[in-house]
Design brief:
Elements: H1 9-13, E1 22-23, E2 26-27, E3 29-30, H2 41-53, H3 64-84, E4 92-95, H4 98-113, E5 119-123, H5 132-141, E6 144-148, H6 161-165, E7 169-175, H7 187-196, E8 200-204, H8 216-219, E9 223-227, E10 238-242, H9 244-248, E11 260-263, E12 268-270, H10 284-299, H11 302-321, E13 326-329, E14 338-343, H12 348-356, E15 360-361, E16 363-365, H13 370-376, E17 381-385, H14 392-409
Parallel strand pairs: 3-15, 5-6, 5-7, 7-8, 8-9
Antiparallel strand pairs: 1-2, 4-10, 9-10, 11-12, 13-14, 14-17, 16-17
The structure holds pyridoxal-5'-phosphate.
């Protein structure tokens, strides 16, 4: 199997049962990894093992089965701490996904720190999951939103950054990697400038975690969120990492079991992190599966995986660029994993439907980034997004399908 790198793609793909699926008599080509990724056998096995051998509720039981479940769940937390470079596993909060993690920060940070007249800055590349919760929070607190603009290539324009970080700004929220355009943002630089201005930074790492080794300390952010199902973990999982002192100073997002120290009808004392933000029975099997996904990723040479993905991405971009009538949307330097494009004047959904007829899954639409699409003057794109298991042959099939779609829609 063509790799162009040292990665053994045949062995890697054998871990993913779904990749052997056929569509229309040909092997399925899955290029919708930014929406969700496929799951390796080790993730499925870890979740099954939990249900088959140690299914019990965590934390509250003294019996052996509950202790086993708790150990597996807390083990997954330690794994996720290692995965993001956190020194203290208590700074890892398990969530339903990146959306819930972003909502926790928006609701709890705004309750503690946003006053009328304050400002929140979002980048122009944000997913709706990092826009809507902040709009809700700003509405509730009498604060306003500002936007760090995007240029026509899809890169952030940092010229107005310092002005936007000036008072009354309290927090800056931005994606690490754009889901719509693949733009990789200079997070360290932006965090350093925010820190100098006394502004907190929330990084939405949903599209970075599957591809890049993450080190929250080196990035210099205050909060980092990721989506488990996009990094080969189960659906309904995600992580919020935050600096311990900051998280412990925030009010809880949800109330209920496990997030308390004591309750009377008059007053509740909240638990410290991570329980503070994990009310109710968590997705125990999901967290264990996510831990297995992180272990799976970390068991590979991540530099080699990234090199493979970058080589594949360059091949895909060059191939799309060479097809007359195809226009790339998102041309910022240093992009990663996702490439958006349009074919002539054809609606993106029509193009994606024709590509699907070749047994190739790509996404079309606004990718939950309507403000970004408005900035670019379009209603949506076709997006092909890579996972670690994709191959050169699959990209070649995509390119042939795009040519066919162009000819059919001409
Ligand atoms: N942020 C980005 C950049 C995304 O791409 C997505 C999902 O597409 C999300 C947030 C939401 O993630 P989740 O599905 O885990 O809630």
């Amino acid at each position: 199997m063509t790799t162009g790198t040292d990665l053994d793609l045949t062995a890697l793909r054998a871990h993913f049962p779904l990749l052997s699926r056929e569509q229309g008599g040909r092997p399925l080509v899955y290029l919708d990894n930014a929406a969700t990724s496929q799951k390796p056998d080790v993730v499925l096995e870890a979740m099954n093992r939990f249900y088959e051998t140690s299914c019990a509720n965590v934390h509250r039981g003294v019996h052996a089965l509950s202790r086993a479940a708790t150990e597996a769940y807390e083990g997954a937390r330690r794994t996720m701490a290692r995965f993001v470079g956190a020194t203290d596993p208590r700074e890892i909060v398990f969530t339903r996904g990146a959306t819930e993690a972003l909502n926790i920060v928006a609701a709890s940070f705004s309750a503690a720190h946003l006053r009328p007249g304050d400002r929140v800055i979002l980048s122009g590349l944000e997913h709706h999951s990092d826009i809507v919760p902040w709009q809700m929070a700003c509405d509730a607190r009498g604060a306003s939103l500002g936007v760090l603009p995007v240029n026509a290539e899809g890169a952030l324009d940092l010229a107005p950054l310092d002005a936007l970080l000036a008072p009354p700004t309290k927090i800056l929220c931005l994606v690490h990697v754009s889901n719509a355009l693949g733009t990789l943002n200079p997070i360290e630089t932006i965090c350093a400038r925010a820190r100098a201005a006394g502004v907190r930074v929330l990084v939405d790492g949903a599209q970075a975690a599957p591809h890049l080794p993450i080190d929250v300390g080196a990035l210099g952010c205050d909060f980092y969120t990721l989506s488990g199902h996009k990094m080969y973990g189960p659906t309904g999982t995600g992580v919020l990492w935050g600096r311990g002192d900051l998280l412990n100073a925030l009010p809880p997002f949800l109330g209920g079991g496990d997030m308390i120290k004591s309750v009377t009808f008059e007053h509740t004392e909240y638990a410290e992190i991570p329980a503070r933000f994990e009310a109710g029975t968590p997705n125990i099997a999901g967290a264990i599966g996510l831990g297995a996904a992180a272990e799976f990723l970390m068991s590979h040479d991540r530099a080699a995986v990234l090199e493979h993905e970058c080589a594949l991405y360059a091949h895909m971009v060059a191939g799309l660029q060479a097809i007359s009538g195809v226009r790339l949307v998102g041309t910022a330097p240093g992009r990663l994993a996702s490439q958006s494009f349009l074919v002539g004047d054809a609606p993106a959904h029509d193009v994606a439907t024709l590509i699907d007829q070749h047994g190739i899954a790509v996404r079309s639409g606004h990718h939950c980034t309507q403000p970004l699409m408005q900035r670019l003057g379009i209603s949506g794109t076709v997006r092909a997004s890579l996972g670690m298991y994709n191959t050169t042959e699959e990209i070649d099939r995509l390119l042939a399908a795009v040519v066919d779609a162009r000819d059919m829609l001409a």
